[in-house]
């Protein structure tokens, strides 16, 4: 997932709603094409991975020339961090702080915090409760101390995937430092109720990954362009518009690719992004150009 993200804005509201897409994959080589397409489609901002920012800063002349060339800001960085292993806390913290500083240097303002992937076979979050919460508090405070916002992104195949795990995390973490950045498609895939979860934690939401989920084998690991799945996208956006006057980040459109080389996606990244943009335009959201 190079999470180049696309942002869109509703003219009637002061705060910006965004969109994130990971269709181009993890490869830093694909970032410029992604940012080009994002800008060309009229989105207002992008998100990519912490490690991708670091690669560009260290080896490709930095992100700033890319941002200037396509006249589109970076809003946030997706950062995957180990929360289970206490022996890794110091090294993971060092990495997270490094990524956060690079994001801030380039004008970004939010860390989308995801727990690192695990093998969930036999996993029970209750066996790891203490370290999950303590480590997330440590990480989130460090990000906040840098002047950025840290928002928890629940994710399939991580320690926080199910609805029960989301409620456990958000009801126990120190929300002075850790806010909520849900992925509504991931919530649906994980067996949760996105509308209920968004409603229950609305005061803590500072960012969102907006994607649909239809559940089949469609080249997007069950996800779908906006309006083509089972997630109540229009309702969720209406809730955000009604309840929030400002987000530290944005709502980012996102669609996962299938990494199986034998699976052909139904459309190119650009085509999938255009389908979702057009759906959002029909709902009244405005884009550049």
Any overview of this molecule?
The protein has 289 residues and is α/β, with parallel strands linked by helices. The chain has one domain (5-282): Divalent-metal-dependent TIM barrel enzymes (TIM Barrel), CATH 3.20.20. It is built from 10 helices and 11 strands. The chain has helices spanning 31-40, 50-59, 64-70, 89-105, 129-145, 163-172, 184-189, 194-200, 233-243, 269-282; strands at 5-8, 17-20, 46-49, 74-81, 110-115, 149-152, 178-180, 208-210, 212-213, 223-224, 251-253. Strands 3-4-5-6-7 form a 5-stranded parallel β-sheet. Helix 4 links the parallel strand 4 (74-81) and strand 5. Helix 2 packs across helix 4 (89-105). 47% of the residues are buried. The model is unreliable at 1-6 and 8-15 (pLDDT under 50).
At the first level of CATH, what is the class? Alpha Beta
Oligomer kind: single chain
- Trace the largest sheet across and list its strands: 3-4-5-6-7
The run of helices and strands is EEHEHHEHEHEHEHHEEEHEH
Topology record:
Elements: E1 5-8, E2 17-20, H1 31-40, E3 46-49, H2 50-59, H3 64-70, E4 74-81, H4 89-105, E5 110-115, H5 129-145, E6 149-152, H6 163-172, E7 178-180, H7 184-189, H8 194-200, E8 208-210, E9 212-213, E10 223-224, H9 233-243, E11 251-253, H10 269-282
Parallel strand pairs: 3-4, 4-5, 5-6, 6-7, 8-11
Antiparallel strand pairs: 1-2, 9-10
Helix pairs in contact: 2-4, 4-5
